[in-house]
Amino acid sequence: MGDENILLLDKLRGDKVGCHSCIRRSFCPAYELGTAQTDDSSCRILHHKPIHQGQHVFRAGDEFDGFYVVRSGFFKSYSVDREGESEITGFYLPGEVFGLEGIETGIHNCNVKALDTGTLCKIPFSQFSEHSASHHLMTLSLLKIMGKAISRNHKVIFSLSKMNARQRFAGFLIDIVERFQQHGFEGKDLTLRMSRADIANYLGLAVETISRLFTRFQSMGILNVDRRYLQIYDMDALHDIVNENFHDEALLDRVG
User: Fold this and answer.
1) Does the pLDDT at position 49 exceed 70?
2) What is the SS3 string spanning 56-121?
3) Contact indicator for 213, 166 with CB cutoff of 8 Å
4) d(CA 188, CA 176)
5) Within a 10 A sphere around the Cβ of 170, how many other Cβ atoms?
6) Residue 46's closest CA among 16, 22, 9?
7) Alpha-carbon distance 94 to 216, whole Å?
8) How many Å apart are CA 225 and CA 231, to the nearest integer?
9) Residues with Cβ < 8 Å from 82, sequence gap 6 or more?
10) pLDDT tens digits for 193-218?
11) E strand or H helix at 178, and its extent?
12) How large is the C-alpha radius of gyration of the chain?
């Protein structure tokens, strides 16, 4: 079911959407947290009303009182340095978690806002301290979620520090496809809600480089892009580029 249908169901049901009735539950990392409770009536996961494009979920400096799971839509996190320059630190797709960075200090150290209209589930952090003794499964589930987030962040840091422009871009596309597939989507026909400027910022590249890479990869038959609609034709070629096993050096030299 698409995000549009999920948004419609949320409007019809209001804030009473329970974990057991959620159509995304089999792909949701927080579902185990909900089922660790006795039933939906005792589940303290909060289901938010739609958040619209450009609206912030929280800002750096806001008090941390829980973390979020994307139910529908797309979100991005970013930090702002002393000179006022923004740096995008992550994109979040349906089924993914954000806000965990606030656990250590009790305040959020980044900003998160919606890239399009979406909905969120919020897991109040207070329930872990209140129930950790009798509901240890919730704590174990949280540790799994945190471990997965840390592992993925390490992978991204390695990619950005060791790869050239074309490898970063190919790796980014692979990562997006795999994340969609992990959460029940087809994966190879995508609508990218983030702009090319956002992608460039995230990868540490110029916007012109991202535009050139889209064009070159399309000319190589790897993908087709129409505005924000993206079709991936050749995942093997993307992996070959990341691993520097692509053999058409003439094309790669023009890609950068």
Assistant:
1) yes
2) EEECCCCECCEEEEEEECCEEEEEECCCCCEEEEEEECCCCEECHHHCCCCECCCEEEECCCEEEE
3) yes
4) 9
5) 25
6) 16
7) 29
8) 6
9) none
10) 999 999 999 999 999 999 999 999 99
11) helix 165-182
12) 19
Tokens 């950005």 belong to which residue? 160
Q: Tell me, what amino acid is at 49? A: K
- Record the tokens describing residue 87, joined without a space: 């740096």
What are 4-45's pLDDT values in tens digits?
Answer: 444 443 443 444 456 666 766 666 766 655 554 444 434 567
* CA 146 from centroid of its chain's CA atoms: 14
Q: What is the pLDDT of residues 141-195, one digit of tens each?
A: 666 777 667 666 666 666 666 789 999 999 999 999 988 888 777 767 888 899 9
Neighbours of 197 (CB within 10 A): 12
| DSSP letter, residue 222 | S
Using alpha carbons, select from 222, 190, 219, 209 the residue that is nearest to residue 256.
209
Tell me which amino acid residue 222 is. I
Closest to 159 in 3D by CA, of 147, 148, 181, 174:
174
Tokens matching residue 193: 């809600």
Tokens standing for residue 164: 């050239």
The CA–CA distances, whole Å, from 226 to 30, 98, 232 equal: 34, 29, 12
CA 78 to chain centre: 13
Do the Cβ atoms of 7 and 119 come closer than 8 Å?
Answer: yes
